[in-house]
Amino acid sequence: MHNEQDFSLSFEMTWWFSRIKDLETISKYNEALYRYQQKITNAAVEDMVLNMGPQHPSTHGVLRLELITDGEIVKEVIPHIGYLHRCFEKHAESLTYQQTIPFTDRMDYLASMNNSHAWVMGVEKMLGIDKDIPKRIEYIRVLVCELNRIASHLIAIGTYGIDIGAFTPFLWCFRDREHIMGMLEWASGSRMLYNYIWVGGLFYDLPVGFEERCREFVEYFKPKMVELNQLLTDNQIFISRTANVGVLPMDVAINYGCSGPVLRGAGLKYDLRRIDNYSVYPELEFDIPVGKGEMGTLGDCWDRYKVRVDEIEQSLRMVEQCLDRLQKELKRTPDFDPRAKLPRKLTPKAQDYYARCEGAKGELGFYFVHDNERSEIPFRAKARGPSYNNLSVLPELGKNVMIADLVAIIGSLDFVLGEVDR
Amino acid sequence: MSFDDIKLLLTQKFGEGVVTGEERTGLQPALLIDPDRIVEVCLELRNNPKTYFDFLSCLTGMDYGVEAGRFGVVYHLSSIPYHLQLTLKISKPNDRSEDNLPSFPSVSSVYRTADWHEREAYDLVGIFFEGHPDLRRILLPDDWEGYPLRKDYKTAEYYKGIKID
What we know:
The complex is a heterodimer.
Chain A: H1 4-22, H2 31-46, E1 48-52, E2 64-70, E3 73-80, H3 88-92, H4 97-105, H5 112-127, H6 135-164, H7 168-188, E4 197-198, E5 201-202, H8 210-233, H9 236-242, H10 250-255, H11 261-265, H12 272-275, H13 301-327, E6 351-358, E7 363-370, E8 380-384, H14 386-391, H15 394-397, E9 401-402, H16 403-413, H17 417-421
Antiparallel strand pairs in A: 1-2, 2-3, 3-9, 4-5, 6-7, 7-8
Chain B: H1 3-14, E1 19-23, E2 30-33, H2 38-47, E3 55-63, E4 70-79, E5 84-93, E6 103-105, H3 113-124, E7 128-130, E8 158-159, E9 162-163
Parallel strand pairs in B: 2-5, 6-7
Antiparallel strand pairs in B: 1-2, 3-4, 4-5, 8-9
């Protein structure tokens, strides 16, 4: 007589074999699918196939990882994405450039300002109006982008703490992020999905008193960062869990197309804000933090974490410089209208253009193909999300590590599934 | 290195036939490459000490429309040491049936970035990449029918017997 476990195993096997039988003919188009199913079937006999996600809290969204495990050791990671696919590129092909901006907000929903900034800069460049944007508008854009980058990194740090088992930093980060959310809501009317940066201008000017309140926040936030560093960055338990774990060498990172804090954590000083010198970044002073391997090996989880902490400080510097300009030489005037330069028709010449900028997670690119001079709708728009490429390195990093370390690696890559799946 | 230098470098190394044309109208000039030789071109551009195009920024699968009847792939390379950017394009005519997908060589052996991007192009545009290690659908379910970013794609009315509203 079968006991319960035997029954479940045989049921699982029959289920897998029935899936293979579904493929009636194996052609070159579904041969990879067949190979994958064979691998999982065989692994279910010899090793153990463990599903992590899509509802697992440490996968930071609806990511499903299929782990082939031997005891506590992960032999192979197979990521399955697409649970949050919202057809961004299909939408972009049927909407005008202006109408697509709210959809870009929903890609990386933790740093929406950076997404719309990238999209808008690309469209402005195609229209040839990128040099006519008033300085005040450019400074406001960079100000809100950097505030949003701080908010995004605060989530990365806070949730990373909770992955490792530290609960307090999570609460502190969310408390401070709430101030930024409140300020951006004050400016744009929405908490997360702003639709604030428009082609050729802004939705509205900053509200009266925004600069003063923002300065108060910077003064409030600086000592909080010191506290956070004492609590988490130099915490011995945290270091033991993250140093020498998930080491990503620089050449592997480049070859996988990693960018942003993941690439800088591997020790390469590469930041598009300095390389491309777009917007007003050449006028701002800031350093590019890189991983140095202080606590262990260069390119480990701790380095990637530390790059984000340092970037928050650099972003605060930039916010202060923007506020200086916005309160002095670019002071608000009663007749200033951020919508004055909005083009009536967004009809670029027939061309294709790849726009890229440094989002909160790395190189955020949009590839536009425009074929009709009278149309406001792109022929094809492709989004290159940084998280998509940063996540693709996970099967490489997740080989022969402990399951608990895999959680640390996932957290250190800091991806947003909204951007991976688009 | 300028755009012309890169073109000269490629034609000297591989002969005149490798660059089939160029596009200079837009803001970013593009080289049109012979589809069969894209892998060696990418490998050369990556390894040559004068170019070092070591970073594949973006890979886009293209459907150029029903009338044109062409499919293509666009590569955006970027060189980290020299701060250069380069666009490569390959394309070929192909019919639109699902039994005969347009097929291009896979560059995932040169850039691992291409692995997931080619899976995405296969999934959404229906372009087959020869020599890809694991060409499965990535964003859509494995049993999805059709390729949504093709210009002649019709939205499905039913998914597994469930009516889509």
